[in-house]
Amino acid sequence: MKFHLAISAAFAAGAYAADVGKHWKIGWIDNVNPDGKFPRRAIGINGKFPHDPVSINSNDFLHINVSNAFGDGRPTTLHAHGLYYQNVNYFDGAANVAQCPIPDGQSFNYEILNSPRAGKTESQWGTYWLHGHYKGQYTDGLRTPFIIHNANGEVYDYDDDYTVALTDWYHEEHGYLKHHKFLKPDPIYPTPKEGLMYFAHTKANQTAKNLPGYNENATLPFEPGKTYRLRLINMSAASRFDFWIEGHDMDIIEADGTDVKRFATDVVQVGIGQRYSVLVKARNSAENDWRIHADMEKDMYGGGFKHQDGDHLRLNLTSKVSYGKKNAKLGKGRKTISTFKLFDDLLLEPVHKESAETKPDMAVTLMVGMNSTEDGIPIGTFNGTQFKAPLTPPILTMKTENDTAIMDPKIYGPNSNAVVAPYNSTVELKLVSAGGAHPFHLHGTKFQLVERMKNTSLPCTKQCSRENPLRRDTVILPAGGSVTMRFRADNPGAWMMHCHMDWHLAAGLAMMVIQAPREAKKMLDVPSYFPQQCRMQGLPVHGNAGGVRGSTTDFGRLN
Fold first, then answer.
1. What residues does CATH 2.60.40.420 cover in the chain?
2. Which of 89, 420, 457, 463 is the most buried (most CB within 10 A)?
3. Is residue 119 helix, strand or coil?
4. In terms of DSSP H, where are the helices of 367-432?
């Protein structure tokens, strides 16, 4: 009752423009066939796949009550990719890190934006996505775009707003591929059967809806002379895309929710989990239609693995821009991607400047590896350690152990790869890859992108001393190279960082950043249903990562 009164009081005071509440039943849908090649069951929301995007304003209060309707005993969670969750870490949705997963038949109320529990209104807008964060469920379909419009007005003017969803598709379920092909001796890397591109209309203050069709059967409607914002979201399990439009110029204006100064480009490379917005000026003539391209990068599939199953994969997806003329022919005299130069996101400059964090209080180097056990089973590692999730969610460890213990990384588990940062300290993380490329996502934080080197033996010069570095939440670590990020530890809680290639995450390529645990202990007001759902699954709600009190060496069942 007190909670509902708090919400009512907040709205009475005019703190929020709208109370946007949704109820999502998550479960299986039969005969899903987006590529027209193979019907299979997939995960839907309220009986629908794909689900329409969520589109709100930055001063709205968004909460989604998620009901687990699988009916087969499997848990689930929901994560809003790129959201801060300031002071409400337990709504982040990372299974076994931010919460215990939702048991079958139970519900969890996610307060995603401007939660009254946070005690503040977030200053967050831009392009995001919602997806499952339990055992590859987004690979099976639990994913949809999430758009936050700036209630105070956008930085750039445009006439209309569309989202371009880029994803990949498998004919077998994630669990089958994981256990019967990938995480086994002599593994086969699971390459998708198809790439998918589809569109949604996401203009502010209008109901967001998907447009019909995928790939060649999808059309983006333009009118001559108008300016369009296209929001590109890569919601894939394993694919990176190069996006471009024949006969049209593009200016990047946003990266991962950060408004940036206009940056002209021919093609946008979108890593898994990344988002970009581009402004596109329509042509003055309606005579022709023009092809839209989303090219999947082949080097993302199975690098370093002996066996792959991707010979079938069509790498070049196409749709079209249509100006509405019946039987219009495709425009001619178009460029080819071989003539394009890929842009470097280090060159993007935020509109709203934040001074560069130049003197980190702590600097951590993490060697990223995809290795294998003695039996040949793939494992992902940071500094040689494969991530294994704690039994006790770290939030409950912080709440139940003493102030000294919760500053010790060991309490969060021998395989947590935990980095503990005191409140308001400046943290530098340097990721180094001895092998392939990886897209890394840090929950709950926008970091400053300080450096990315394709050759770690060379010094970084001009690009590493930018006064106004790009701030984002998902970054591509180049093959054989390094990337350096810095951020201030001002968001108390446990935040996962992981490779967003879902097969690498399944192999354990993950870690936790524990920000300000003493402050988290004081301020995080954990909802009562959180520990209740842990107990339903036999998971501990106190003590260290294994549920043992007062120890950094004995982890009970976790051992």
1. 2-343, 362-558
2. 89
3. coil
4. 394-400
Give the DSSP letter of residue 384.
T
Q: Which CATH class is domain 2-343?
A: mainly beta
Residue listed under structure tokens 């775009």: 145
Tell me the backbone φ, ψ of residue 465, rounded to 5 degrees: -130, 35
Of 351, 356, 386, nearest in space to 368 by CA = 386
- State how far the alpha carbon of 205 is from the alpha carbons of 15, 51, 85, 156, 431, in Å: 18, 19, 23, 17, 40
* Model pLDDT for residues 157-212, shown as the tens digit of each residue: 999 999 999 999 999 999 999 999 999 999 999 999 999 999 999 999 999 999 99
* Cα–Cα distance measured from residue 274 to residue 398, given in angstroms and rounded to the nearest whole number: 31
Q: Are 148 and 556 in contact (CB under 8 A)?
A: no
| CATH top-level class of 362-558 | mainly beta
Selection from 116, 120, 122, 123 nearest residue 8 by Cα:
116
Asked whether residue 228 carries a pLDDT value surpassing 80, the answer given is yes
Q: pLDDT (tens digit, 9 = 90+) per residue, 385-429?
A: 999 999 999 999 999 999 999 999 999 999 999 999 999 999 999
Residue pair 367/383 in contact (Cβ under 8 Å)? The answer is yes
d(CA 418, CA 547): 17
Residue 117: is it exposed, middle or buried by C-beta count within 10 angstroms (0-12/13-18/19+)?
middle
Cα separation of 402 and 550, whole Å?
8
CA distance 440 to 474: 5
pLDDT one-digit tens code per residue, 448-486: 999 998 866 666 555 566 789 999 999 999 999 999 999
Cα distances (Å, whole numbers) of residue 321 to 198, 211, 219, 263: 12, 13, 6, 22
- Report pTM: 0.94
Structure tokens belonging to residue 321 = 């821009």
> Residue 176 phi/psi, 5° resolution?
-65, -50
Report d(CA 533, CA 280) in Å as an integer.
Answer: 47
Q: Which residue do the tokens 């790009």 mark?
A: 470
